[in-house]
TrEMBL record:
Pfam family, one: AAA_25
Biased composition annotated in UniProt, kind: Polar residues: 339-350
Taxonomy of the source species: Bacteria, Bacillati, Actinomycetota, Actinomycetes, Pseudonocardiales
Region annotated Disordered, chain positions: 312-350
Taxonomic source organism: Amycolatopsis thermophila
The protein, known as: AAA domain-containing protein
Amino acid sequence: MPAPRVLASVPDQPARKTRWTDAELMAVDFPEPRWAVPGLLCEGLNLLAGAPKLGKSWLSLGLGADIANGDPVLGGIEVERGPVLYCALEDTGRRLQRRRRQMLAAGGRAAPLLTLETACPTMNHGGEALLCEWLDENPHARLVIIDTFAKMRGADPAGMSAYAADYAAAVRFKTLADHYGVPFLLIHHVRKQSAEDFQDTVSGTNGLTGAVDATLVLKRARGQADGVLHVTGRDVEEAEYAMSFDATSGAWTKLDGPAADYQMHDTRAQIKRFVRDYPGQKPAAIADALQLNPNTVRQTCTRMAKDGQLRAAPGGTYFPAEPASDSDSTPELSHLSLRHSTALDQQEQE
């Protein structure tokens, strides 16, 4: 068992200044932002959205345990060790215990610096004070996870527009994140409708995505290991990361290479099966049914028609290709995809 990494020093937050002359601004030596996960989760308010039962909580719990131990996250990203607060507000102690035991049985380590909370009042009824108390007691804190945002945001003020209410709810968390200089991660859901811009799939108004410092959207076809983590924000580089989920260990891993390299094979297989079952569909309808990016589906259908895997018809619809030979068959799923059944405990993948 490797020795625990030492706690890295956390500089005191300087008095916040909000006004400079142009010359003063250019002369200021601002400290580098603090990262919970370098290149992915920066100080400030981060939002992670995904469909229900997709694995967001497995991802959050894994991040929390690894950062608390200073272990590489997502299969290889080096992080600084420090206390982590994980508010698992849709879980019970029994469920959390089962998940942690599953992680430990697969080679994980106990995380003494990880605090697990299953009940927390909403922000305007004591939740804010609870978070402040923990942060004051843990000056080396590296991450606060709220799972889920909806459980802790509280009721919207009467007479406030939906946009203003979403913005105000997020700002309450952002104020704490900025004051303490600690990255916050809010776990949230996506809407059922697909959208070309992944930020538009986040449930709620643009007030929510506008208030946060970074938006992350996790997408994974149901029953498959491969997924894509879309990221954009003020201090993070906009990117798409190929991800793999291991249901046995409950661990997410960031795969090497562009996400498109892992998506294309499975995407073509999904589209071909769908068109075979529902011929005469347009790319927009295919994308909506398969919960895929419309641009990706449109481009893939065009390429598949050129490759003889689909037949394009007038009006922009697609049909199964005319059978050319007995060797023409649906492509196999990627070797990264899960092909085995999972235990009942592993099905709780919220």
